[in-house]
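Dear Dr. H.,

I hope your travels went smoothly. While you were away I took the liberty of generating a structure for the chain from your last submission, since the lab meeting agenda had it listed for discussion. I wanted you to have the full record in hand beforehand rather than looking at slides cold. The sequence, exactly as received, is reproduced here:
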Amino acid sequence: MRSKLREKCGIFAVFGKDFKAARLVHPGLWALQHRGQESSGIAASDGKKLRFKKGPGLVAHVYSEEDLKKLTGHLAIGQNRYSTSGDFFDAHAQPIIAKINNKKSIALAHNGNLPSVEKIKNFLDKKSISTKGLNDSDMMTQIISYFVKGNNSLEKAIGKSWPYFTGSFCILAMDEKKIVAARDRCGIRPLCIGKLNSGYIFASESCALDIIGAKFLREVKPGEMVVVDEKGIRSIQVEKGDQKLDVFEFVYFARPDSIILGKSVDQIRQNLGKQLAKEHTVKGDLVIPVPDSAIPAAIGFSRQSQIPYYPGIIKNRYVHRTFISPEEHTRDRIVQLKLNPMKHILKNKRIIVVDDSIVRGTTCRQIIKMVRDGGAKSVHLMISSPPVRFPDFYGINTPNQKELIASYKSHGAIAKEIGVDSLHYLSYKGLIQAIGLPESKLCMSCFTGKYPIDIGERSKEINFHPSYAKI
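The corresponding predicted structure, in token form, is as follows:
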């Protein structure tokens, strides 16, 4: 069972006449591995034929040297995937490939989620296009293909399909000759544009531009479609944008070396820790982070509180998600495959543990037990975000609301369950202040239950409690 939030995917694209595009997409996907570890895929074209390679596992496992040699051409798109619900199916690895005719194909990589697929499903059903076994990304590919078959260019087909995309999406689509990048009107998931020599790059995060030496140009605007082909780059504003970036990009998802909405992710996370220390005074001997995403917040907390920082929990960086069932004696110790306490550091100390969020509470409870077993005298947990009380419907694998511990347990009950001497969350106002952007620019639905893009029939799954008004 996953107890941390997981992002759906990372996407990356390259167009340049002088490039071996797949060779650049490959390291780009390495840089975005944190956004998806279930599968990876690359589609590439030499202007005449579209070729692809995809499969389950990490970037390091999916591609061989022979695979990259076969992915010839000057334009390519790629994706690392996390499924947002249910189990992973190999058939759902992306990019999704759709054959238009004997000479033409399209490929699509999607980051986000359509919480309601009724509108797109009804359209496809009326056109006698089967939707059996298709997820939201598959249906998006099918409707775009339908319009391409009607003699529309790829960008026009996406424009015609746009009204049926009822949810959050960053997409990269390509045919044999062009790449199209598009972002929903709220820009909930990030997507940026880079320049490398005479070519153009698209990436979920700016850190992936850095790895190939590309220069950051700008972000794809909410509601915008950007087309790159042999004629150059051009922009089409499909609908008026209303920026609502998912706040968890700053709290947890994005790599700390990325820049989003002009802000350093690392600096914001340090600010979250500093603000947390301003709001809550706790006596302790040592501040330790839950690695890796909470490290900057722990540093910020330490600097503000003047309590020494030390990495008291060590992360095994070579352990990733596995599909192999653990042996009976290790089943309850899965967390220690990834994390292990530094007992000589923790012994007889008052420990302040900093983490970014609590979802179900399962992993958190195991980590706290680990710290106590390491000899800590007392354990105080500091969370660098407010309580997560509502599920996400825009591309995160948050469980249903009944599994979110803060949605049904009081503050004190949560502290007791996870086994800490005290538990403190960053306030809602403190979160916004630390980020330094207007609240109106952020999607805060996991904290507020207010969803900027209509979630359709999924709204029936949301329950509010009077105490939630105190956020």
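Two observations you may find useful: DSSP finds 16 helices and 23 strands in the chain. The longest strand covers residues 105-113.

With kind regards,
E. W.
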